[in-house]
Amino acid sequence: MWFLTSLTTERRQERIESRTYTYAVADESADVAGTADARTWLERALAVVGDDGRADGNEPTAGPAVRFERVEAPDDVAAALDEERLHVHVAWEAGGDEDLPDEDVDRETVGNDGQGAPRIVLSYRADLDASDSAEAFLRRALERTRAELREQRLATAGFASAPDDLLPLERIETASEEQTSGLLLGRLLTAIIVMMMLAGGSIVATDALAGEKERGTLETLLTTAASRVEIVTAKNLSILAVAFATSVLNIVNIVVWMQLDLIAPPAGLKLVIPIGAGLLLVLLYAPAAVLLSSSLLLVSGRSKTYKEAQLLFAPVMLVAMAVAAIPVLPGVELRSAIVLLPIANLGVAAREILTGQYDWPLLAAAWAVTGGAAALLARASVRTLSAEKLITASELDAADLAGGPALFPRRVARWFAVLWALLLVWQLNIGGSIDSRLLISINMAIFGAAAWLMIGRYRLPVRETLSLRAPPAGAWLGVLIGAPAGLVLADGIVRLASLAMPIPEAWIEAMAENMGAGLPLWQMLIFFSLMPALFEEIAFRGVLLHGLKNRLTTVQLVLVAGIAFGFFHVDLFRIPPTSLLGVFLVVTVVRSGSIFPAMAWHGLHNALALGSARVEQIALPEQPIWWHYVLAALAILLAFRLMKRRTRAAFS
Amino acid sequence: MSTVQVEAQGLSKNFFDQSRGEVKAVQEVNFECRGSEIFGLLGANGAGKTTTLRMISTVLQPTAGTARVLGHDVVSDPVEVRRNLGFYSASTALYPRLTARETLTLFARVNMYPAERTRSRVEEMIERFGLGDYAGARIEKLSSGMKQKVSIARTVVHDPPVLIFDEPTVGLDVLNALDLQKAIQELREDGKAILFSTHIMSEAERLCDRIAIIDKGRIRACDDLEGLRAATSRHYLEDIFVHYVTGNDTPA
């Protein structure tokens, strides 16, 4: 294909360059002001036509073989152009707008159409190859000659230097060619690899489970001594092998075509990938490859037929491509929330490696996140092999039928995943550019609306869902003790996390800005303390906790619901402290059986954080004082003790 | 009598079904099956036969109760269970693009049959089931009778002590069905413990040493033919079956 395209393009070029074009000049006797000038201009242009050798986009490059031949001016120009007796018609007009003919003719003016200056009018047919090329050659010759004529005039009029030499501008780029090329490749590499792997892998994946179900061989396989893990591993390996082989073939193909000069590499591409970086890239892409093959296999496992699997691959591919294209976005750094998005994080990491940046802790984190996602999907594939509804006829669980509250625990994770994605997209795209009060109001509106939607959709009992109960009196004392201690511990965890990934100064400044520095105190309290305390508690300690509580043990519940809350604080550096806060708030609700102490804690925590930031400008003591943390931890334990409800009916 | 090879205790399985809500497909099923015995599960379509056998083959997980194959628990030790088991049903198809010989080699190896003996074992199976002329042809080229023979050979190639035949004669013509029954009887002579499900009375009568009559997920009766006849004072299995399933006393 490439070869044929390139061959035909060459032939076309040859034909365009080696032909003779006809032109005609209209009515030279017509008495138009400046006719003499225009005639000189045209003569000079005709003398140099075809000499420019300029390759400009899709326009033909003129070689010396181009010839222009003058023919008699026809009476009917349009007919002559149509019959190709004439390729281009030249006329001149005096300047001025009043005598422009034919409004519906597509006109473009060469040079200034200022009053009084004569102008040359070229008529041609853009839909006829020869006429189109003739016009292009002639127009370019006219443009060049016009510049020369202008220079001559200026020189005659006493203008010292050539106009082109006036105010020259020069660029010096300090990045090496390798770095520039690295950026170019880094932006696209992930998308290219993902596309190739999906194209190759999907065929095997469809056959791997859906195909076996359709042929009836799956049950045969499932009753052999092979374990489910072995089956899924083997299937994944075969998908990976084919995906890898097709990708390598594709790449070899491209390289060969480039070597044969049949396709042109991007301008200025000079790639030197050091062996070390190359190996690192291979290592880096390994979990991404497994993630892709696992997701394909999972789709295949969840489909009952070949066709169903093929149908479901489309959304998987769209999502994978969208994620893989994220490195193309400017300004996305690995040291951001993107490190939590599988595949995209490795894409951004690859881009940074190719431009010579190695952020080791974040590279490891990205690798682990994508690897973890791959493992989860592989485990889900294993489960599809034990899921009776996929092997036998019965379709849905009872809860799916009944809808309503019973279904909610199965859907809650999905809802919050969508919510998280929504928040991520919105924060990354618009977040930084608007007033912090508006930002927070919109975030809170999103949480409130989501909570309201979930309660409505699943007909959840509001009082029970949101734990709207009177807490034991001790809970309030617990909050008073716990919230300040929690803030101290949050500070501790920030310090711990900063050992792994130091917090940039710029981030702290931006944070202070986001936290509404400069706002009046009452506004700060409303937007950063009161509103989060209400809406985030309703969404996270109300709805999320309600959805998860019957599916997890208490310890799991505290960790999952707490850390999930942290992850909603999209910003990478805020995740550790907010996760900790989330954990404390979940414990508060679980212990006291009520959401109100959690709201109070949250509000107090935020207010104290704002207060301490106002006082110290987030200037923490240089050296952490260890007994502060011990004391705080003890205080927290005491606080939780105080919150304990007497009755058993507390949180269930 | 030889030792117990398969036992089920309180085996139960609940499904959720779109139209029927929660379905108790199998409830409290108890039985055991010994070597050199064909144990029949006789029931109408949807009675729970396949579900029971799938739980024993570890394809499905029981909701409650246990089953053991050679003492290996189906939940905690599924791989050992399957290694000692050959499972045959109308829905266990073969890979169409493998030859009979490749198929047998593959399944012998997947089921951990010793590598050094696999080749001779495969040739032995080819000879025993009369596949000699076709052993090198792709499965997709074979007639349905030949496919069925390859399928049985596939089921027993790793020489498992326990065999499960889940409605094996569904869709077969009379001659092929008789061939299959003969093969199953021969396997009993080899000392295998065989679980056999069917809804065809004559098949159960002819093959099974003991019969469990299963209806709506419960075993209604379990004995040899003579015992069932004595308990119900009916001669034909058909009448005995109707007696247990409908609870409706047709005249003796």
Total number of distinct structural domains of chain A: 3
**Name given to the CATH architecture of the largest domain in chain B:** 3-Layer(aba) Sandwich
Radius of gyration of chain A: 35 Å
Give the uncertain stretches of chain A in residue-range form.
Answer: 53-60, 392-401
**CATH level 3 topology of the largest domain in chain B:** Rossmann fold
Mean pLDDT of chain A: 81
| Helix fraction bin of chain B | 25-40%
Biggest sheet layout of chain B: 6 strands, mixed
Integer tally of domains of chain B = 2
Helix share of residues of chain A? 55-70%
Number of strands of chain B: 10
CATH superfamily of the largest domain in chain B: P-loop containing nucleotide triphosphate hydrolases
Distance between the amino and carboxyl termini of chain B: 33 Å
- Alpha carbon gyration radius of chain B: 19 Å
The number of strands of chain A is: 4
Residue fraction in strands of chain B: 25-35%
- What oligomeric state do these chains adopt? heterodimer
Strand order of the largest sheet of chain B: 6-7-8-3-9-10
